[in-house]
Amino acid sequence: VQLVESGGGSVQAGGSLRLSCAASGYTSTTNCMGWFRQAPGKEREIVAATYAALNRTHYVDSVKGRFTISQDNAKNTVYLQMNNLRSEDTALYYCAIDDWAYWGQGTQVTVS
């Protein structure tokens, strides 16, 4: 199983980015897909997750109303639309699936 993130980069505060995470080699339907982030000197935190069996999504309070998680099952891809970015959103962003058994390599988001 391989997860490949893309879409990170450097933006000014107030800008937007859309992260993508494509899963390959995964033949099951994962119950959950999510995005995590880790800033220097801080612990990794879950940013957003989608739970298919529960038909619900979860967001950390600091991104509610600004970030949106979505998935395309046909493409085995999960997205994170990030709007109104803030400097505190700067971090390495990871995607994970299947009760967080599989992880991507991360994509850097820098907001100045």
Walkthrough of the structure:
With 112 residues, the protein is an all-beta fold. It is 0% helix and 54% strand. The chain is built from no helices and eleven strands. The chain has strands at residues 2-6, 9-11, 17-24, 32-38, 45-51, 56-59, 67-72, 77-82, 91-97, 102-103, 107-111. The strands form two sheets. Strands 2, 4, 5, 6, 9, 10 and 11 form a seven-stranded mixed β-sheet that branches. Strands 1-3-8-7 form a four-stranded antiparallel β-sheet, with no helix packed on it.
Can you describe this structure in just a few lines?
With 112 residues, the chain is an all-beta fold.
Order of helices and strands: EEEEEEEEEEE
Number of helices: 0
| Helix coverage percent | under 10%
Principal-axes geometry comes out as globular
N- to C-terminal separation?
A: 34 Å
Unreliable stretches (pLDDT < 50, length at least 5) are none
Rg calculated over all Cα atoms = 13 Å
Number of strands: 11
The main sheet comes to:
7 strands, mixed
Mean pLDDT: 92
Strand content: over 45%
Structural class: mainly beta
